[in-house]
TrEMBL record:
The keyword NADP does not apply. Residues 11-114 form the Cyclic nucleotide-binding domain. The keyword Iron-sulfur does not apply. Keywords: DNA-binding, Transcription, Transcription regulation. SUPFAM superfamilies: cAMP-binding domain-like, Winged helix' DNA-binding domain. It comes from the Bacteria. This is Crp/Fnr family transcriptional regulator. InterPro entries: cNMP-bd_dom, cNMP-bd_dom_sf, Env_Response_Regulators, HTH_CRP, RmlC-like_jellyroll, WH-like_DNA-bd_sf, WH_DNA-bd_sf. Residues 145-218 form the HTH crp-type domain.
Amino acid sequence: MPQGNWPKDTFLHRLREPLRTKILQLGVRRTYPPGHVLLRQGTPGESVWVLVDALVKVSAQTQNGREALLAIRVSGDVVGEMGALDGSPRSATVTTCGRAVVFQVRGAVFIDFIRRHPEAALTLSQMAVERLRWANQRRLDFTGYGTDVCLARVLIDLAGRHGTRKDDGLDIGVSLTQTELGGMVGAKEVTVQKALRGLSGLGLVQPGHRHVLITDMRGLVRFADLDPRDVPPKPY
């Protein structure tokens, strides 16, 4: 059974033993290559996936045909629980960003696990509330700030959750195209390119191919109109 120091605030990190082991024992271990679609928007929610060693992107297609990147999920997280809990079709598509080791738990089995273990149900509810707050904050950002500030805030959030320290800065830790970054801030690719050039010109970030290096976190926090105390702690 996999063991590990699960990233902070993930589902497995919050669960106490033996619940962590128990939820994994209920599933089937599967390994997938990069670019594999775990869940597809609009399909039935028949399974829940526990990410053991994985990084995935959660995206959805809008009514005008554009794809919006909604979130990033990492090892220790759970995806697909919404469809299993309410029986609705999938509201988003989940795609692996690299080789992924996951446990597939049948929806009915997951629901029974939640019913029998109130601690797990409370953990799931707390995570749902936090994700809703995150989404609400992004909507407020879109209303009150321009693309460059919205992008700065998203980069800070990604770095705090997934970032890795480098000699010359803090890598956000997630491989994303500029189109995908645009999906997270509600902007077109050309607008994101312009915003990144501006942030780079200020010495705050260093854009690269499918990655962004934050070279001045405190400066980026000031640019994003955040409190200096919002500088994320050392990434896990």
